[in-house]
Each structure stands twice: as C-alpha cells, then as structure tokens.
Amino acid sequence: MTHLLEVRDLVTRFYTQDGIVHAVNGVSFTLDEGESLAIVGESGSGKSVSMLSIMGLVPSPPGLVESGQVLFKGEDLLQLSDRRMRDIRGKEIGMIFQDPMTSLNPVLSIGRQLKESLKLHLHTGDNEARQRAVELLELVGIPNAADRLNDYPHQFSGGQRQRIIIAMALSCGPALLIADEPTTALDVTIQAQIINLIKQLKEQLGMAVIWITHDMGIVAGLVDKVAVMYGGFVVEEAPVRALYKRPSHPYTLGLLQSLPKIDMQTKVRLQPIDGLPPDLLVTPTNCPFAPRCPYVVDKCREANPPLFPAGAYHKSACWRWEEVRQESLTRETA
User: Fold this and answer.
1) d(CA 15, CA 65)
2) How far is residue 32's CA from residue 15's CA, in Å, rounded to a whole number?
3) What is the DSSP letter of 89?
4) Could you tell me which residues come within 8 angstroms of residue 171 by beta carbon, excluding any fewer than 6 positions away?
5) Strands 208-213 and 176-180: what pairing?
6) What is the side-by-side order of every strand in the sheet holding 308-311?
7) Tens digit of pLDDT for each residue in 282-331?
8) Rounded to whole angstroms, how far apart are CA atoms 12 and 49?
9) Nearest CA-CA partner of 249 in 222, 281, 219, 226
10) Model confidence over 265-274: pLDDT tens digits?
C-alpha cells in the first residue's frame, strides 16, 4: 500500500557556535489520504523542525537535513530541486504557522496575498483569482468577504487573521495540511473556533492533516493517531484511543497525568514531570527520557530502545513498556 506521506529515518542537525544541535533523530511515520495525525511533545522535542524539514524550510545554514526520506505521493521531497519543491509547497501541501500576527505581510492587502498563490500555482487570471479569494474567505467564516479583500492584516482580529492564513493554506486544494500549533497566540474561545474550523474543513475537503501541538488536551477528539516526540525522537505512536487508554511510554503517561480531568469525583493533585528536557547539544546515545523517568534502570542509561510493537499499530520506545502499560491500566481502574 502506498501512503500519501511516508517519513523514513529523518535526521536534522543545526551547526551552531555552541556545537551541533541534534534536533531530529531518525523520525519515521506514515499518513494516508484523508487521515489525521497529531505530533505532540513539549517545546524543543523536534515537532516543528520535523515539519520544516519535510517542507524544505529548514534555514541553511545553520540547519541541515542530513539523512532520511520524505516520500509524498511516492516522490522523495528531499531529493527535489528548489523549483519543484516550490510547486509542491502551497499547491499540494499547505501549512499553517503558529503566529497569525507575523504570518501575513503587513503592507499587502489580504486580497493580494490570497490571489498571489492562486496565480502562481493555478495560473488563474485576476478576476478568477479574486472570485476564488472571496470564496475562500467565506469558507473560513470571514463576514462580508468581497468587501474586505482590500483590507490589510491590521484591520482584522487575531482570530480572523488565523482564518485568513487557513484560507491561504487551502487556496490550491492541497492533499495535506500541516497545522503548526495554529492556536498558540489566540485566546481560549478563539482557539476552540479555529480547531473546529480545521476539523470541519478536513471532513469537507477530504484532506489529510498533521497537527503539531504540545497540548494533549485537544488531541483526543481531533485525530486518528498520535506520535509522541521527546528529545528529537518519536517515543510512542498509536491510534488515538489506544494511546489515551493504554499509554506505553513513561513520557506519554506523564503527559496524560499532568492533564486536569473534569470528571474526577475527588480532588487529585496534578503530577508534573520532574526534571528538564535533554540538552540537544549532547549526542544521544541512551534513552533521552532516562534522567526524568521513574521506571529507569541501568539499561536505559546504556542504550536507546527501538520502537517495540505494543499492540495493533501501537509502538513504544521503552525497555519496560509492558510495566508502564500495566501501571496506566491500574490507575484507570483505581
């Protein structure tokens, strides 16, 4: 079976004055047409760099995608010319960035920015591009869309700007949409609106979606499967229900235990994950979570575990994943 996107052993480094930053360390995952994947983990885990590597947007220097394959519709994106990659970006793969305040050009009208992509990738005329721009703004819920094409970014609210960015990402009908923490700079009410909008558009347009987030609380009802990243590695991957019901890596278990639960009958203190994330300047040779892990044994400090099969489409990079799973099930029934 051919996947829409297949990432194989992706490795990305940053060469800085302080040393080599081991940002992405052999990341692999697959995504099928119409499927949704969440990549979760705390800041610095390699989520965004992985997506920038896929899109060919890692700044070089200092960044360098050193090895791996990124097969999109069977074509390795890492081997393409800059011109071919520009054709794919925006047309076949759309991306929503974190901050709506800086993702739009402040000196160009919204209409011009929307029409630019349409003319570049679809070779439409000005009138056709204008009509399509109006349709896109209406699709993402901008009122009086036709009258607002000549407005500039500062004339819109933060939530409206993020909707416009979504419209731009969808303008050419991409098969894959990458959403890099699209609600980070927005208040809670607007966050919910943007999440529901992207979810609705995914179903309506039938595209695949990759969500990048540090918030496990929004993932459960949003995606089909989850990849958990830590220290530049994928440490667990599973269908979303299996991940929440049977977490099999200590880091995933820690993330879930730190979430507040509104259905608890008694007050339970949230459990933070003690310690600090790994220093990415240090060459990884053992389990990156070992210094913070309550399940750590000598073997964890000597070798980095591979992703072990932990169930149907479920993998965990932990030497003691069976004990972690049993602990999670015990807590669930307690």
Assistant:
1) 11
2) 33
3) B
4) 90, 94, 114, 117, 118, 121, 132, 133, 136
5) parallel
6) 93-96, 176-180, 208-213, 36-40, 225-230, 233-239, 314-316, 308-311
7) 999 999 999 999 999 999 999 999 999 998 899 999 999 999 998 777 76
8) 8
9) 226
10) 556 677 788 8
